Amino acid sequence: MLILSAFEVFFTWGIIAITLIGIGSIVLGVFSEENSLIDTFWMGLAVSVALLEIWSFVFPITFSTTLFLSCVGILGLFLNRSSVGSGLRAVWPGSRWVPFIGIAFTFFLALRSCGPCEYYDTGLYGAPVIRWMQTYPVVPGLANLHGRFGFNSSVLLCIAALGQGVWKDLGFHLFTGFMLSAMWATLLPACVRVVRRAVASPADWFYAILAVPTFFWTARSRIVGTQTDEPATVVCLVATGILLEHLCREERAQHKTHAPRLVLATALFSLAVAFKVSTIVFALLAWCLAFRGLSLLGWSTSQRNKYLFGALVLSALIVVPWCARGIISSGYPFYPATVLAFPVAWKVPLSVARWYAIGVQSWGRIPDVPFRDTQGFHWLSEWFNHAIRNRSSFQLPLAISLAGLVGGLTSRLRGKRHLARPWLSLLFPSLVSIIFWFGASPDLRFAQFAIWTTAATLGAWGIVSLDLQLHRPGSNVALVALVLSSVWCLISVGWKEPVVSLRGVQRPPPLPKSAVVLRHTLSGLAVYVPAEGDQCWDAPLPCTPYFDESLRLRNPSSLRWGFISDGRAGEIQNF
Questions:
Q1: Percent of the chain having pLDDT more than 70?
Q2: What is the C-alpha separation between 75 and 445, in angstroms, rounded?
Q3: 290-299 burial, b for 16+ CB within 10 Å, e for fewer?
Q4: DSSP state letter for 369
Q5: CB of 489 within 8 A of CB of 391?
Q6: 534, part of any domain
Q7: Lowest-pLDDT range, 31-45, 142-156, 271-285?
C-alpha cells in the first residue's frame, strides 16, 4: 500500500510539473522561442507564486485556485506545443539513462513524502496559517492572534494550493519533496558531464558539488511538513547556478548569452525572498549581478531594454505582493524586522515585533534557552561546539571551501594560465550574506544557500585549477572525493530515522490532532488554545498557543477582517 501511495505522489508531481512547464512557456516564450523544459518549469513556479499572491488578496486558496492555474498551464502547453515538444525530445539524446536516474530519485522522494509529519513548526504555525489561507483572503492583523502567523512565506501558499481535491488537507506531503526532485532535474545533466568529462566547465563542477548536500537532503532531511528553508535554498542555488553559467560564458568570451535565462535568474532570486525573508541579503546582491549581466549584453538597445523590463516586472510581480501580504498580516513588510513599519490600525505592537525578532536571533544562537542567556559573546563556544558536529552544513562545506581556495591560489601563485574568473564574483553575495546571517540568527539551516554557494564556487575554482595542472587525474580525485563525502554525510548519526518513520505507513497520514480548550478575551472573542504545549495543528479557527485577553476583532461580524491587539505580555514572557 505504501508503494501505491508513493506512485500517487509521483504522478501528482508529474501533473504539477507539466502544469508549471505550461505556465512558464507562456512567459519565457515572450523572450525566446527555444527554452529548455527545466527553465520553463522554474519560470512556471515563479509566475504561479506571483499569481497565488495576487489571488490571495481577494479570494481564499481553494480548488478554484488550483483549477485556474491548471487551465493556465494547459493553455501554455497548447500555445507552445512545438517548443515544449522540442524540449521534451532534447531530454533523451544526451544520455538515455539520465532520465531514469532522475525518476529513481523522484520516486524515492515520493516514498519518503508519504511519511508522518514530524516537523515541529507545522503544528506551531504552518498548518494553522494554511487553514487561514484556505478559508479567507489575507487577514489584516493575523499576526496579532499569533506572532508567528506573520512569518510571511509564499511556500505556505503553494502548500495551500496543493492541498485540494484528492489531496485535501494533505498538501504538506507534497511540496518539499517536489522541490528536491526539481533540484535533481537541474543537477543531473551537469553531473553526467562531469563523470564523462565531456565539458570541463566550472558550472558543471558547481552543480556536481551541490549534488552532495542535495543527496543528503533527499535521504535525511524532513520533507513532510511546512518547511520553508529547503525550498528557499533550492531556489537560491538554482538561480545562482544560472548566473554562474552566464559568467562562465563571459569568461569564454561568448557574447551571445541566452538572455532569457538571466531574466529567469532574477525571477528566482525574487522568489527566494518570498519563500524565506532570511535570503534577502544574498538574493538582493545576486539579483543585482544578474541584472548587471542583462544590462551588459551585446544586443540592440530595444532588445536589451526588453530583457531589463522583463526582469523588473517579473521581480516586482513576486516581491511587491509578498510585501503587501506582510503589511496586511502584521503591519511590517519584513516581519519580524520592524523596518518600514506601516501606520495601519492592525499593526502588531512594536514591542511584540521586537521581541519576536530577538527570539529568532536567540533561537539561532542556542535553541530553547532564554534570550538573556544568548546575549554578548559567551554563546559562541556552545554554538561552535554544536555547529562543528554538523557534517552536511558545516564540516563538509568548510572543507570544500578551504580545499578549493588552496587549489585556486596555488595555481595562481605558480603562474598557471592566469585567466579571468568573473564567476568568482558570486563569492560577494554569499560571503556578505553569511556575515549578515551570523549576526541575525546563526542557525545553520538559515544559511544553507550562502554556505553551499561559497563551497561550490570555491570548490569549482580549485577543481578547474587542478585540472589545468594535472589534467584528467586531478578531476578524478575530486570526483571520488565528492562521492565519498556524500556517503560520509549520509551515515552520520540518525541515519535510520527516515526509514523508521515509514514503518506501518500505508497512506499519507493527516495532521495530528491537538486537544484544545475554549477561552474568551475581554471583548468576548472566543479563541481556541491548545490544552497542552504550543501546537494548534488543524484545530478550528481561531487557534493560538498564546492567549491574549486584549485581542479583539476589527469587525465583530467576521474573522475575515482581522484582529487588533494592545500587546501580549504573557507571550513575551515565554522568551
A1: 92
A2: 38
A3: bbebbeebeb
A4: S
A5: yes
A6: yes
A7: 31-45
Per the DSSP assignment, residues forming a β-bridge with 520 are: 526
Amino acid, res. 159: I
Q: What is the pLDDT of residue 253?
A: 46
Residue identified by cell 500517487 is: 8
Please name which of 238, 309, 304, 249 lies closest in space to residue 271, comparing C-alpha atoms.
238
Mean pLDDT to the nearest integer, 550-567: 91
Q: Of the candidates 362, 346, 251, 299, which has an alpha carbon nearest to the alpha carbon of residue 565?
A: 346
Q: Where are the alpha helices (DSSP H) in 127-174?
A: 127-135, 154-162
Phi, psi (deg, nearest 5) at residue 365:
-80, -55
Residue 251 CA from chain centroid, whole number: 29
The pLDDT value recorded for residue 255 is: 46
Angle between helices 448-470 and 396-413 (to 10 degrees): 40
Confirm if 347 and 330 have CB atoms less than 8 A apart.
yes
Ramachandran angles phi, psi of 76, nearest 5°: -65, -40
> Is it the case that residue 354 has pLDDT exceeding 50?
yes
What is the distance between the alpha carbons of residues 546 and 519, in angstroms, rounded to a whole number?
11
Mean of all residue pLDDT scores within the chain: 89
Taking the CA atoms of residue 550, residue 555, residue 560 and residue 565 in that order, the dihedral angle to the nearest 10 degrees is: -20
The parent domain of residue 527 ranges over 516-573
Please report whether residue 527 resides in a domain: yes
pLDDT tens string 181-200: 999 999 998 988 888 775 56
Closest CA to 567 of 355, 323, 362, 369: 355
Q: What are the φ/ψ torsions at residue 259 (nearest 5 degrees)?
A: -60, -40
Q: What burial class does residue 4 get, using C-beta atoms within 10 Å of its C-beta: 0-12 exposed, 13-18 middle, 19+ buried?
A: exposed
* 528 located within any domain: yes
| pLDDT higher than threshold 90 for residue 473 | no
- What's the grid cell of residue 470? 594535472
Where are the alpha helices (H) located in 376-443, listed in sequence order? 380-387, 396-413, 427-440
Q: How far apart are CA 48 and CA 54, in angstroms?
A: 10
Q: How many domains does the chain have?
A: 1
pLDDT over 90 (residue 500) = no
In the prediction, which pLDDT does 378 show? Answer: 82
pTM of the model: 0.94
DSSP 112: H
Cβ of 33: how many Cβ atoms within 10 Å?
Answer: 10
The answer as to whether 542 is a domain residue is yes
pLDDT at 569: 41
* pLDDT of 403 strictly over 70: yes
In 10 A of CB 74, how many CB atoms? 14
Q: What pLDDT is recorded for position 105?
A: 94
pLDDT on residue 573: 42
